[in-house]
Amino acid sequence: MSERVTRQAASDAVGGLGWRYMLGTLRASVAVGSLFQAVSVAAHAVAACGEQADEHLRADLRVDQVVLTLQTRKLRTVTAADVELAKRISASGVQTEPGDLQLLEIAIDAMDIAAVRPFWSAVLGYAEGGPGEPLTDPAGQGPVVWFQQMDEARPQRNRIHVDIAVAHDEAPLRVEAALKAGGRVVSDARAPSFWVLADPEGNEACVSTWQGRD
């Protein structure tokens, strides 16, 4: 059950149950009307996962929703076990749906990634992970930080941009909303993996999905 699954396979397996594949995780939202109800939903999800809950399930409880996240922690990716647990949770009666799911990423353009990466790990208190992997918040609360290789210095351009990871079926709507709000498309050459957008002053943000990355 620890077999890794592709993004496409994970999305296909649980998309109809209200789960979405996002940045190496399966996520779903459950609408609630109180914090007491949120606790009950989380307890129900834990019971559905049984003894596997500690190694796979994370629950973010709010007064109006519970966000459930599944990932095989030791591998930091989605496996067949996570897919099975998502199915179990949904089958148990928890009303899982895409909701307003999104994940924020911070990207730093760098000439020498190996030189700047330790600084950001130290100043943020983030875990470094393996080579090529993003920096992550050990508490699982802050956005991931990743580094993009520059070919040449760009002293007159901002070298930090924001990535917003959304569910694949939400991305076109998010891009459309940004354009209506005064933004423009810098590049859609890699869509639906990501769209590069800019505000009226040229500051960039990417709307990204899992698609086109397998």
Automatic annotation (TrEMBL):
It holds the Pfam family Pterin_4a. It catalyses: (4aS,6R)-4a-hydroxy-L-erythro-5,6,7,8-tetrahydrobiopterin = (6R)-L-erythro-6,7-dihydrobiopterin + H2O. It is an enzyme of class 4 (lyase). GO terms for biological process: tetrahydrobiopterin biosynthetic process. Residues 106-207 form the Glyoxalase-like domain. Belongs to the pterin-4-alpha-carbinolamine dehydratase family. This is Putative pterin-4-alpha-carbinolamine dehydratase. GO terms for molecular function: 4-alpha-hydroxytetrahydrobiopterin dehydratase activity. SUPFAM superfamilies: Glyoxalase/Bleomycin resistance protein/Dihydroxybiphenyl dioxygenase, PCD-like. Keywords: Lyase. It comes from the Bacteria. Coiled coil: none annotated. Its EC number is 4.2.1.96.
